[in-house]
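It is worth pausing here to work through a concrete case rather than discussing structure prediction in the abstract. The textbook approach is simple: state the sequence, then state the predicted structure, then interpret. We follow exactly that order.
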Amino acid sequence: MDWRALGNKRNLAVVGGVVVLSALAYGATYAYGLYQDLKNTQVELAARTGRFSADRDLLQQRISELEIENAEITATLSDEQKKNLELEREKKRNERKIDTLTKLTTIDPELLKKYSKVYFLSENYVPTKLENIDAEFLIDPSKPLQFLDEVYGHLEDLLEDANRAGTELRVISAYRSFEEQKTIKSGYRVQYGTGANAFSAEQGYSEHQLGTTVDFTTPTIKGAYTTFENTSAFAWLQKNAYKYGFVLSYPKGNQYYVYEPWHWRFVGEDLADDLHDENMHFYEMDQRDIDEYLIKIFD
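Step two, the predicted structure:
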């Protein structure tokens, strides 16, 4: 038996065992180190998770507080907006009242009164400002006629549109002073006696003194005659005059004067439109209701 060889094998076995044990010891030490690292990481993660949860709860609480504050601010703003809206509405209402009162202090209250044997205009009454009617619209261009300046544009539009429609419409009479009406009535009285009262107003009772009334005719008729009723000009007026604020003052069957198809008065577009829609005439309306339209007469 080779004892030397046997000894070497034993030595190798011992060395191998030592190596294995050393490896196992190192592995165990390394594994333990990893375990400790994992444990420490888990502890740190748990701590961070706790802090995160706490921070999250604080943020959620702050969010809730901010939402409440925002709701309160929104409610406050809403209340302020409502107050501002109401103040704005009140401001507009006051402005309208001021505008209405201002207009009422500047608009001639006589313009919508019933002057056919009802209200009286004094000899001193003269419209605020009169405008000469363009000569091309007059039946006699050599005799100037005047109309209230503030509403002359309505008359001019009516005449221009009528002519554009092929209707030869002319003006034979417009504004008349107190004295002019007195002279006219005196002449009629001499000729017709008391019968003149059926077709001619006394001075102070004529709508012509207002400066808002015209007598229409045509180049063929050339006068204020009932035959005007049979013209295309009269038909055009019946269909369209209200659009410009004009109404027929004395229709058939009225209680003041004979039928006057040539006699038209400006009362404002709003009133004229309502009278047309309701198939009424100016003198059939109560004066109190008519007065409500005064504020709109120039609109």
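Step three, interpretation. The chain has two domains: 1-106, 109-296. The longest strand covers residues 213-217.
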